[in-house]
Design a protein that fits this description.
- With 258 residues, this protein is of the alpha/beta class.
- It has a single domain, classed as L-arginine/glycine Amidinotransferase, Chain A, CATH 3.75.10.10.
- Helices cover 21% and strands 24% of the residues.
- The strands form 5 sheets. It has a 3-stranded mixed beta sheet, with helices on both faces. Strands 3-4-5 form a 3-stranded mixed beta sheet, with helices on both faces. A 3-stranded mixed beta sheet has the order 6-7-8, with helices on one face.
- It is globular.
- The chain starts with a strand and ends in a 6-residue tail after the last strand.
């Protein structure tokens, strides 16, 4: 098993119909979205990641946002139960892909709801956003699945964004970064750094000092470069129109290494 493995799912023909909750709907160019997705996947490959393409779910406009289908801690994949009913058919193929990669699989059951985008892991701490898509029962089942494995689960209130990772992600040293107008309570995080752009709050750790970021956050990229990191910018503008960000487009499986 490669040390850096990611699940991805290409945008389907109905991607322009994806859900929007906290922003106004804008037209999405499906052909451009596909090109942007292909560039995103190439960038993962360029930085040593092996990708597995999950089977399409063409009747599900939001299926490209594969991160929401599961949460992986160590070798256990907790299969999500999305808070939006229309997204639940996305789960079956994602579960099959996780099983094929050797994950031990658990799942969130009704009445729990949980979206993978509501989970931010920093070391053994698992922050879970409690808001529109993840409910209290989903948080309880997340604790039951991961605390026996050594996780410390911390619930975080969210009200201004779709998912927790729409507001914050973390740098390799564990510092949480966020755009203050969208963060309910920065004090929840032991170390927090403000960034100047909304999309600058979203990073994917590529390995070493490299950070995958949206091209729409040049000032944040400059700030992080000044801290010694190496920003790698990709244009995901069509997905940003659907409240998507760089984390949403893959499930990263470092835990399966070795």
């Amino acid at each position: 098993m490669p040390s850096k493995q990611a699940l991805v799912r290409r945008p389907g023909p109905r991607v322009s119909e994806g859900l929007v909750t906290h922003i106004d709907r804008r037209p999405v160019d499906a052909a451009l979205a596909l090109r942007q997705w292909e560039r995103y996947v190439r960038t993962l490959h360029d930085h040593g990641w092996s990708t597995t393409e999950v089977a399409p779910a063409d009747d599900c406009p939001d299926a490209v946002f594969i991160e929401d289908t599961m949460v992986v801690f160590r070798n256990v994949a907790l299969i999500a139960r999305p808070g939006a009913d229309s997204r639940r058919p996305e789960i079956r193929a994602a579960r099959a892909a996780a099983e094929a990669l050797g994950c031990s699989v658990n799942e969130v059951r009704a009445p729990g709801t949980l979206d993978g985008g509501d989970i931010l892991k920093t070391g053994d701490t698992v922050h879970v956003g409690r808001g529109g898509r993840t409910n209290a029962e989903g948080v309880r089942q997340l604790r039951a699945a991961f605390e026996p494995l050594g996780a410390r689960v911390v619930a975080v209130p969210i009200s201004r964004v779709l998912h927790l990772k729409s507001a914050v992600t973390a740098l390799p040293d564990g510092t949480v970064i966020g755009y203050p107008p969208l963060v309910d309570d920065p004090a929840v995080f032991p170390a927090f750094r403000t960034v100047p752009e909304e999309s600058g709050a979203h990073v994917v750790l590529l390995g070493g000092d490299s950070l995958l970021m949206a091209a729409s956050a040049p000032r944040t990229a400059e700030l992080l470069a000044g801290l010694g990191y190496r920003p790698v910018l990709v244009d995901i503008g069509e997905f940003e129109k659907l409240e998507g960000c760089v984390t949403c487009l893959s499930v990263r499986l470092r835990e399966l290494a070795g």
